[in-house]
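anyone else get weird line breaks when pasting these?? whatever heres mine. first is seq + tokens for prot A
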Amino acid sequence: MIRILVVLAFLLPAAVQSQEAEPPMTLPRMAEIVLALDPEAQLAGAGFSLTIDDIPVLIVTDVGANRMRAMVPIRSAETMTPEEMRRVMQANFDSALDARYAVAGGQLWGVFLHPFKELERNQFISGVAQTVNVAKTYGSLYSSGAGQFGAGDSGDLQRELIERLLEKGQDI
């Protein structure tokens, strides 16, 4: 029995490696994906600005630090009530999923953060869509749309954005 487990332990990495892996993310590859999502996107150095469902999205990368961030401005944070702040913190725990609410420079943002090189196409597209969804659902569901608990129509409507963007990036 021990010999079988040892053999399987040596075979497993080879089997996993035989699957086709995505290449590491690069700025040209990210630009190609961004332009598939919004052909009118603006590319500037290591950053991008695009619009998804009338929501402005900013993407900032730092290849040297191996980080990227997609951001959507939501509203002024300076006039948020303690109850509103509590609600976004609750959403960060259970319904924002890969996107998060964050405060910087007096502004409430929807953000998606990820290591740059390890970012896969579908993770990136889903992260951008989830960030747009937390902005769109601020004040109501506070949800990324990637997972919904309970019944209702909202989950399907929010999931539609993720599916639509994943389809746009399919050929890249």
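and prot B, same format (seq, then tokens)
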Amino acid sequence: MSKNCLFCKIAKGEIPSYKIYEDEKIFAFKDINPQAPIHILIIPKKHIVGLDTVSEEDEKILGNVQIVMSKIAKQFPEMKNGFRIVNNCGADGGQTVLHIHYHLLGGRVFSWPPG
């Protein structure tokens, strides 16, 4: 973990959050600025800046993130007909916190193309 990273501090419990899920490698919490009725952020506890910086050694943890997202979605009846996963990468991709994270959004119908 990085000592100056917002999401690392949240995962360590240094900054309060509404925890949805936690295991030894992954942490999930409610977004403080939700863009849907259900908006959860899922992060690996390992500090990885973004999808553009992952390596083959990150394969297992990022695979685990996918499994956790599915488990979380199944906990919400509002997501039984679908949900959206978003990963922003880099400044042009809209990434504002430089710690890889995934937005799990649900509870409403989403349009395409996204904004």
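btw re prot B: The CA atoms of residues 5 and 28 lie 16 Å apart. The helical segments are 6-12, 59-74.
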